[in-house]
Amino acid sequence: MFAAENGLKGDPRLQGISEAIRVVPHFPKPGIMFQDITTLLLDHKAFKDTVDIFVDRYRNMGISVVAGVEARGFMFGPSIALAIGAKFVPLRKPRKLPGEVISEAYVLEYGTDCLEMHVGAVQPGERALIIDDLVATGGTLSAAIRLLERVGAEVAECACVIGLPEVKKLKHRMHNSKPFLTCLALLGRACGREGVCGWRVCLQGKFCVMCIWSTFPFIFKIHHCSTAQALPCTLLFLFSPTTLLFCILYWKWTLGIEMLFSQMPTFQGQCRLNGKPLYILVEPRKIDNCC
Amino acid sequence: MVYWAYNLAGIMFHDITTLLLDTRAFRDTIDLFVERYKDKDISVVAGVEARGFIFGPPIALALGAKFVPMRKPKKLPGEVISEEYSLEYGTDKMEMHVGAVQAGERALVIDDLIATGGTLCAAMRLLERVGAHVVECACVIELPELKGRERLGEKPLFVLVN
Questions:
Q1: What is the C-alpha separation between A76 and A65, in angstroms, rounded?
Q2: CA–CA separation, A204 vs B144, rounded Å?
Q3: Its pathway (chain B) (predicted)?
């Protein structure tokens, strides 16, 4: 997840990048220590190193699209796109892009916002990289992932310069989508083994697998049971107290409360957002580089 | 130049996003700007929000200059200076960080498009207020009927396509 843990341990460039970032306290509101990358842009060496690290990582990954999130993603994305020979696609706030767009809403701390992308900018099957300056809860990046996946692109990775501490809780998160699959993931949480589709299945094997198959046969390919076995399992699953609890938790989750989901087990310790890997250069600066 | 200019001519709504989808045309655009400014001792590339952020940083990196974003109000954290400018109806403001640019630095202002020239003028004034020398304003597209070039007065304007 972090560059220092992914082959760049001890790389002096990371320290230079970190030191070039400025902390502005109480912006945009009291209590928030804002990580300001504009000072990084004033440091030509640090800025170049930032772009070079991303370019070195993504050069040979077959990426044909770099999608940058407005507005600070625009400061890093195009340089990376040019260097790796990919096209640059801006992901913008509503009503900024002319012509036909697709929209994806996402949850903020208070209220919702929307991200838009041009129809036709990205073709099905293209491999995409999403870039932004900073990731906190991952809400914006999740919306970006959904936009690209809706047009049939494959998101190879999300890349950010800075990752706030909340990002370490992004293990198996799904944002505002696939609610029942998330409930099922919780169902499978008690077990230890990964299923065919990536969701953990119960060590008891048959019971959970049957529940999953019977409830969502069009999604999963696990066919360990017959319809006769599936029906009672379906009813048991749908009307069980566990299901009720999951529904309540999901309802609370969509209201912006991240409780139980932050404690979900990881995929080999890697940080993922909507199942996509996240690559971050540095942790946030502390107060000593304050303006 | 003809190749991507032809591409650009096919863009509707003067929308540069289609240029960004053409890797060769985008590369050529940046190269043309870099070629023009590489010996002009530019130490600051100021990009106007938000499409100036797409062209400015690659140019700044190639020139060895710093990139300074010029933003709408309340987007930049910390201490800023503001410049008001007129729109077709009403006014708007542009802000730049205090301390980003030093007196005597040579600056280039970049945006995707010049229409009336209001935003470019505001950007130039911000730089001149802190003592920088604006060498030129550079845009990909000009809408000549809106007379932005005249509004810039004696400040040179370089445009790739009009």
A1: 14
A2: 73
A3: Purine metabolism; AMP biosynthesis via salvage pathway; AMP from adenine: step 1/1
The amino acid at residue A209 is: V
Nearest to B61 among A51, A81, A86 (CB): A51
Query: For the segment A30-47, what is each residue's pLDDT rounded down to a tens digit?
Result: 988 999 999 999 999 999
Q: How confident is the model at residue A270 (pLDDT cuts 50, 70, 90)?
A: low
pLDDT in tens, A74-102: 999 999 999 999 999 999 999 999 999 99
Measured between CA atoms, the residue of chain A closest to residue B15 is A98
Candidates 3.40.190.10, 3.40.920.10, 3.40.50.2020, 3.40.50.10490; correct CATH number of B4-161? 3.40.50.2020
CA distance B6 to B11: 9
Q: Model's pTM, two decimal places?
A: 0.77
- Residues 100-119 on A with a CB inside 8 Å of B are 118
Give contacts of A79 with chain B, Cβ < 8 Å: 57-58, 61
Q: How is residue A136 annotated by DSSP?
A: S
Question: Do A144 and A240 belong to one domain?
Answer: no
